[in-house]
Amino acid sequence: MTWSPRAAGLKIAPMPSSKTLLVLVTIATLLLAAIPAGAATRDTTPPVLTVPADMHYQQKQAGSIVRMTYTINVRDDVDPKPRVTCSPRSGARFAIGTTKVTCTATDAAGNATRKSFRITVTAKRAKR
C-alpha cells in the first residue's frame, strides 16, 4: 500500500516562482535586520539583593572599636555574578553609635538594586 497526499484528501500547492521566493526571502531578511541585537535576551530586571536585619553589638572592652562582618546575598535571572559593593564593607571597624550600611548590586546590563541596614555598637556597661 502506498500513501498519497491526494488520496488522503490533501491539496498540493504549486511551487512558487523564483521571483516570489526572492521577495519572501528579502522581506524576512529586512524584518530580521530591524530587530535590535540582543533584543531577545535584553535584561531589564535588577538583581535581587538581600541584606541582614539591623545588627546590634555591645563592646567587650570599654573604648574598643568593633570589627563587624555581615553576609549579603544576591541573585539575578540573567547575570550569574552581579557586582556587589557595600559601604562600609564587611569586616570594617565600627565605633560606638549607629552606622548605616548601604549595599548596591549591579548586573552586567547595568540594572541596580540598593538596600541599607544599620549596625549599632553600644559601650560596655560598667560593673556595679
Question: Any overview of this molecule?
Answer:
The chain is an alpha+beta fold and 128 residues long. The chain has a domain at 43-122: Immunoglobulin-like (Sandwich), CATH 2.60.40.10. It has one helix and eight strands. The chain has one helix at 18-33, and strands at 48-50, 55-58, 66-67, 73-75, 83-87, 93-94, 97-106, 112-122. The strands form three sheets. A four-stranded mixed beta sheet has the order 2-8-7-5, with no helix packed on it. Strands 1-4 form a two-stranded antiparallel sheet. The protein has a two-stranded antiparallel ribbon with strand order 3-6.
Largest sheet: number of strands, sense, barrel closure: 4 strands, mixed
- What coarse outline follows from CA principal-axis ratios? rod-shaped
The fourth-level CATH homologous superfamily of one domain is: Immunoglobulins
Low-confidence stretches: none
How do the SSEs run, as a string of H and E? HEEEEEEEE
Tell me roughly what share of residues is in helical segments: 10-25%
What value does the Rg take, in angstroms?
31 Å
CATH architecture of one domain: Sandwich
Spatial separation of the terminal alpha carbons: 106 Å
The helix/strand class is alpha+beta
Short characterization:
The chain has one helix at residues 18-33, and strands at 48-50, 55-58, 66-67, 73-75, 83-87, 93-94, 97-106, 112-122. The chain is an alpha+beta fold and 128 residues long.
